[in-house]
Amino acid sequence: MTRATALQIYKHLPGKDCARCGEKTCMAYAMRLSRGEKTKECPLLAQKQRAIIKELLSPAVAIVKIGSKENAIKVGGEEVLYRHEYKYVNPPALFIEISDDMPIEEIDRRIEFVKNYETERLGKKQRLDGIAAECASGNKNRFTETIERISKKFNGPLILSAELPDNIEAGLSNVKDIKPMIYAASSDNWKEMLRIAEKYKTPLAIRSSNPLSLRKLAKDISSKGFTDLVLDPATSDRNDMPGIVDELTLIRKSAVDGIKESGYPLIGVTTSIYKKEKNQDNCSYEESLLAGLLVCRYASIIVMRTTEPWALLPVLTLRQSLYSDPSAAPSVEATLYSVGTPDKDSPLIVTTNFALTYYSVSNDLGGAGISAHILVVDTGGLAVTVALAAEKFTASAIKEALAKSKIEEKIRHKKMIIPGAACQLKTDLETATGWTVLTGPQDSSALQAYLKENWKT
Amino acid sequence: MGKKKSSYCNRISKVVLGATKADGGTRDRSHAIGGETAPAFHFFEGFTSHKPVISHDVFDIPIPLPGHVREHFPNVMDDPVKWAKYRVEKYGAEMITLHMVSTDPKVKDTPIKDACRTIEDVLQAVKVPIIIGGSGNPKKDPELLEKAAKVCAGEKILLSSVDANMDYKRVARAALEHGHSLLSLIPMNPDEMRRFNKNLMRLGLKKEQIVMDLFTGGIGYGIEYSVSAMERCRLAGLNGDEALALPIASATSNAWSAREAWMKNDAWGPRELRGPLWEAMTAQAALLSGGDLFMMLHPRAISSMNALIDSLFEKT
Ligand code: B12
Ligand code: SF4
Hints:
The complex is a heterodimer of chains A (about 450) and B (about 325).
Chain A: H1 6-10, H2 26-34, H3 47-57, E1 63-66, E2 73-76, E3 93-99, H4 104-116, E4 118-121, E5 124-127, E6 130-134, H5 140-153, E7 158-161, H6 165-172, E8 181-185, H7 190-200, E9 204-207, H8 211-222, E10 229-232, H9 241-256, E11 266-269, H10 273-276, H11 280-296, E12 299-304, H12 309-322, E13 336-339, E14 348-352, H13 355-367, E15 372-377, H14 384-389, H15 395-405, E16 415-418, H16 426-433, E17 436-439, H17 447-454
Parallel strand pairs in A: 3-6, 3-12, 6-7, 7-8, 8-9, 9-10, 11-12, 14-15, 16-17
Antiparallel strand pairs in A: 1-2, 4-5, 13-15
Helix pairs in contact in A: 4-5, 5-6, 6-7, 11-12, 15-16
Chain B: E1 14-17, E2 31-34, E3 53-59, H1 67-70, H2 80-91, E4 96-99, H3 112-125, E5 130-133, H4 141-151, E6 158-162, H5 168-178, E7 181-185, H6 190-202, E8 210-213, H7 223-238, E9 248-250, H8 259-262, H9 271-288, E10 291-296, H10 299-312
Parallel strand pairs in B: 3-4, 3-10, 4-5, 5-6, 6-7, 7-8, 8-9, 9-10
Antiparallel strand pairs in B: 1-2
Helix pairs in contact in B: 2-3, 3-4, 4-5, 9-10
The complex binds cobalamin (B12) and iron/sulfur cluster.
């Protein structure tokens, strides 16, 4: 179901306009609810209406939590097929696989990698979300030991993956308090898997390469009242790309259309490539592309094997991009910033308040150990090139920002550096401000070399 | 799959690029693109489509490219004829885009006459369908594309590109006269795209003669705007908006403007792998949003995209 409108909710309210919910009218209350805002409860609601409204307000894709309280992640909660219709809500969680047949050193390396891997974009740390422990050995003790080893060093979200329910239950013994996800129930073993998931209150993934059996499984399990489900259309052992893409899309489409058994987060596993291909770089490359496809096609959880930064970076970047809010360009406050410890002779860098622009510039300077003042001009969150085309980054806009910044109190020169792309502003800007305007390089990554050559006070 | 009846009322137009002897041209083959009956790969809603095509970039003068890209084209980049041939012979290019960047007054201001000679030479040297790209200079491109249309008369080329800030009518007239198609470029703005395509159609261009470019920002450099613009246009087209029921092109090489694709950075890993992956990932996102025609740069990115397209169009 797509988000309920205020009107749809209003129909089920008492209509007394008594204000006991804290809103003046029932309509105002309905509007708050439809926006997903927190409210007091309407005390006059009958049991039945309360249930209807709860249903109306629950997202098309259920929210599932993996992990214990402080380290838990939320997946699902999605409402739409296309991001322009609203937005994508919870970015897909990336899990890195650790298989129990890997050498101990490799297991330890992987644990450390997941803990430490980090890259920053738009001022936000991009990280991996958890570890998927895979029982490849088929051996109960080996699997349990591996999980124990992981849990001693890592307290983030886990997925326990094994075919035999017995192995899952043994593996859970060490980590039952941190609520890992169980992967995966199939048509053959689901009763046992469900028993374990209910006993330990963990989320449960169900898996089938047959679309009809996957739906039937979801229906059978949820009809028993268990709804902490994640769906796997078995991306990992199907060779038919059209079938995989079709199935992922169909499940999300029917969730959005209100079909309950489709309304659960999707999981995709990209590790099967390693069975077909020996060259590790080729595997990482292919895996990255498949993970990217899963990000585009609604997966809420992705399990990968590669630990190559070059293969993870595009997936993390694509994820952050597609899950950004389409109604607002990420921007920073338009004001005077500094990097390093600038003094009265440090350069003054002029740029725009699009987050990607500002962070590119400040990270380039910071990374090169340069101290500088950065004057950020309000361009309504547009990049330099876009703001130039939209005439938001102009001589007068820069002049205004300059005046507001009181920069003269901080520097004793009257020189500013503008982006290379904005070279056409130089003359106007010099006339308008009386300052010396230097045109910098096209890309801020070249600022270090540029300053070395050109910055003298 | 695929045999299901479409859930949409309209179909995306089919545009044919390249003319064989039978059609009055000299190409070995032609490519039909478009024709979708549902959003990209919604087989359950009756998706069918012509197979998307990748056109390989060739520039008329050497442009600054990272070394790890240049090394794939040894000794051919200073000659567009050699470069185009190399693309076809070594990498099996099914289509070539010849970007006439040197015609820009700020670059080399190559006279139109000389540019046309280059175009003619490339047309002689390779027999695949071609796209002729301008330099992006709004003053010079109309004349260049007009003359290119004439030089390539009968070959059903794609003229890349026209927008509202240039004398597009001049290019449109030339396309009509010589039987070519136009690439209409409006960055990431479906409403503007609709308006502009209506203008083109009013000039007499048929919907079988227009391809749209909503601009493809690379991953991390605006891909989300591109994806949403493409999806919105495709849905509008399938739901009956004729001015948007057109195939979509993606100038995927834009992915190289993202520094993650080219910059040396040890924490990001080797750029020889990162670069083509960045371009391939960008192309993949565009394909899944409805892309029909891809203008691409790196051979490895191209071959992984071709493999993906093949696998998605396999009979299941
Ligand atoms: C994403 C995008 C958009 C988004 C806006 C995103 C945003 N918040 O800005 C949207 C979809 C809204 C958009 C709209 C438009 N866009 Co637009 N867009 C882009 C795109 C793809 C990427 C821009 C980007 O994010 N760049 C990344 C940032 C970090 O770059 P940057 O700000 O320039 O910063 C870099 C440098 O300038 C430099 N730098 C920055 N500060 C400083 C400071 C100093 C001192 C120095 C030395 C260097 C420096 O280093 C930075 C890092 O490399 C570009 C194409 C491209 N690949 O560049 C087109 C592009 C900029 N857009 C273009 C156009 C035409 C438009 C529109 C006018 C289209 C239209 N008809 O509606 C509108 C105008 C906006 C409006 N009226 O609202 C054209 C501009 C053509 C031109 N030169 O005039 C471009 C180039 C695409 C194209 N080839 O046609 N766009
Ligand atoms: S408390 Fe209930 S009945 Fe009263 S105004 Fe609020 S919603 Fe309406």
